[in-house]
Design goal:
about 270 residues, alpha/beta, binds adenosine-5'-triphosphate, ATP-dependent zinc metalloprotease FtsH
């Protein structure tokens, strides 16, 4: 086919233990895992299970990672699509992809659908330059009608990521759609330390490496940036044939990345 399909993973190995920090977000998402695993608990008491959760935060903070962890924890298949990919499609293709995506997810329920960059498709309708974008509106309308069409016991939950909740069409945020928001901020000092530890887990880190100091030197770094720091340090050590990664490798990695940041080539904006 000419257009990209959505991704599907039947078995996701990511769990909450792969996500450092974001304790509050994890607490809220544990609930979503329970909705998927024990829907009857809620249905029996007359509750309607939420259909959509918006993950709000800057790039690289772990929104995709958290969505995958929800699927992994619930042992549910993970369907993923990037909303910006819909924009490259021919008229009518986006909407029909959405239909197929939801159909497959319903057949595999309980399931998670993850829509990355929902703002690229979910902007307020008619607000773009040159007015409405037919393809975009059709695709957005299809997402809304699929979510409205879930029956009470469907056990498909849609997670969507954005860093611009303010520009979203209010129709997306109505009850029964993306009526829950989970904030995923840049990591604080303690969280940066925890993220560094996660990414150092399977690497030969010299015992002299001061992780706390590295966390202090990386204010405003996202989780993705921190992962990159550890990888760059490993590359530095590997380049000169070392068998462990030491502090000098981390300093070089930081220099390199800070330069990159100044040139605007990394994820921090
Ligand atoms: P984007 O909005 O740019 O897609 P995102 O918020 O979805 O970004 P991810 O793609 O989940 O971010 O993060 C990129 C990578 O950074 C992850 O695969 C993971 O390796 C690492 N990472 C980010 N945040 C964390 C975290 N809190 N704990 C551990 N690793 C993290």
């Amino acid at each position: 086919s000419r257009a990209k399909r959505f991704g599907r993973e039947n078995k996701v190995n990511t769990t909450f233990s792969d996500v450092a920090g974001h304790e509050e977000a994890k607490r809220e998402l544990v609930e979503v895992v329970d909705f998927l695993k024990n829907p009857q608990k809620y249905l029996a008491i007359g509750a309607e299970i939420p259909k959509g959760v918006l993950l709000v935060g800057p790039p690289g903070t772990g929104k995709t990672l958290l969505a995958r962890a929800v699927a992994g924890e619930a042992d549910a298949p993970f369907f993923t699509v990037s909303a910006s990919e819909f924009m490259e499609m021919f008229v009518g293709v986006g909407a029909s992809r959405v239909r197929t995506l939801f159909e497959e997810a319903r057949k595999s329920a309980p399931a998670i659908i993850f829509i990355d960059e929902i703002d690229s498709i979910g902007r307020k309708r008619g607000a773009g330059i040159g007015g409405g974008h037919d393809e975009r509106e059709q695709t957005l309308n299809q997402i809304l009608s699929e979510m409205d069409g879930f029956d009470k016991s469907s056990s498909v939950i849609v997670l969507a990521a954005t860093n611009r909740p303010d520009i979203l069409d209010p129709a997306l945020l109505r009850p029964g759609r993306f009526d829950r928001q989970v904030t995923i901020d840049l990591p604080n000092l303690k969280e940066r330390e925890a993220i560094l530890r996660v990414h150092m887990r399977n690497k030969p880190i010299a015992s002299t490496v001061n992780i706390e100091e590295l966390a202090r030197s990386t204010s405003y770094f996202s989780g993705a940036d921190l992962k990159n720091v550890v990888n760059e340090a490993a590359l530095e050590a590997g380049r000169v044939g070392k068998t462990t990664i030491d502090m000098s490798d981390f300093y070089r990695a930081l220099d390199k990345i800070t330069l990159g940041l100044e040139n605007g080539s990394l994820t921090i904006t």
